[in-house]
Design brief:
Layout: H1 7-18, H2 21-28, H3 32-46, E1 51-53, E2 58-60, H4 62-86, E3 94-100, H5 102-118, E4 122-128, E5 142-146, E6 154-158, E7 165-169, H6 171-174, E8 192-194, E9 204-208, E10 211-215, E11 221-223, H7 226-234, E12 240-243, H8 244-253, E13 257-259, E14 270-275, H9 282-298, E15 309-310
Parallel strand pairs: 3-4, 3-5, 6-15, 8-11
Antiparallel strand pairs: 1-2, 5-14, 6-14, 7-12, 7-13, 9-10
Helix pairs in contact: 1-2, 1-3, 1-4, 2-3
């Protein structure tokens, strides 16, 4: 939702940032119609058009660009001042906006649900996307990425142990086929292909003895969502490649069998991260504190240090 009632200004910056009324409306928690009405009202008050609109694109006019350049820094100062005042409150409340990729969101969902049970006055707005974003510029309070993708100027909080990939197949699939013993053996098997957010097909990543290997698998279906790929593997369509956490329950229950385990070494940890210079609300502080406890409870061994400032 727009912050602190500064809806017109937040709306202009969101549209300029997203390049789309629809995307800005989703970010602000408004309907596209409501957002268009807000901008129309502001343009009538100013007596100038801020955006050029066509059926395919939205862009700032010269007047709009000058308006954004002027109000952007001022609006950030206003938000920070109001957040600073709010940080004095004792009870966590308000909205926390978090950005991360989908696999990370699935892994930290237990943390989010626990937080909501403890602090029912807080609303969590979790946005998942494959692209890397500037969480400050895009209006997020926190981000969740692997340690190697956390910007160097951010404070990082490790969220648990290192993670791993898992290559899996159903027991029924393996009854009539020989198990692959090395990544190259996958070329003789139907595999569930994975499409990345940028449209490229993912090459399965392996490593053994310090030697990385990439395999461009083939198969009858290409998917871009882990839950769909899991369903396909469970239905004996072929071999799948997942984050271990996405199929751990299936492995434990015997619904899936793990393959090539010695070719899937540990990966970077997940980290919660945020800018070092910010006025922290009670909700923000409570979430970071709970994240630290969550990490401690899910890490059986010592947390591997990350090459970032750990706050």
């Amino acid at each position: 939702m727009p912050k602190h009632g500064l809806i017109e200004f937040d709306a202009v910056l969101a549209i300029a940032r997203r390049g789309s009324f629809r995307a800005a409306a989703l970010e602000l928690g408004l309907s596209t119609t409501a957002l268009s009405n807000v901008i129309g009202k502001l343009e009538r008050q100013l007596g100038v058009r801020l955006f050029n609109r066509t059926t395919r694109s939205v862009s700032l006019t010269d007047a709009g660009r000058q308006f954004v350049d002027k109000i952007g820094p001022a609006l950030q100062d206003i938000h920070e001042a109001m957040e600073n005042a709010q940080s004095q409150q004792d009870t966590p409340s308000g909205t926390l906006r978090i950005n991360g990729f989908a696999a990370a969101a699935r892994e930290i969902l237990p943390l989010l649900l626990q937080f909501l049970r403890l602090y029912p006055q807080v609303h969590v707005d979790l946005v998942t996307e494959g692209r890397l974003v500037d969480i400050v510029a895009d209006g997020f309070d926190l981000g969740i990425r692997t340690a190697d993708l956390v910007p160097s100027d951010m404070i990082a909080v490790p969220l648990g142990p290192r993670r791993r990939y898992a290559v899996v197949a159903s027991p029924n699939y393996l009854r009539t086929r020989e198990q692959p013993r090395s990544p190259s053996d996958l070329l003789a098997h139907p595999c569930i292909r994975v499409r990345l957010p940028n449209g490229a097909l993912y090459r399965w990543q392996f490593e053994k003895g310090g030697q990385p290997i990439q395999i461009d698998v083939d198969g009858p279906i290409t998917l871009d969502e882990a839950s769909l790929a899991r369903m396909a593997v469970l239905e004996d369509v072929g071999i799948g490649f997942f984050m271990e956490s996405d199929v751990q329950g299936d492995l434990t229950a015997g619904r899936l069998v793990r393959l090539l385990e010695d070719w899937t070494p540990s990966l970077e940890q997940l980290c919660l991260y945020y800018p070092s210079r910010r006025h922290s609300s009670a909700a923000f502080k409570a979430f970071v504190d709970l994240a630290r406890k969550f990490a401690a409870s899910t890490t059986a061994t010592e947390i591997v240090p990350v090459s970032r400032t750990v706050g």
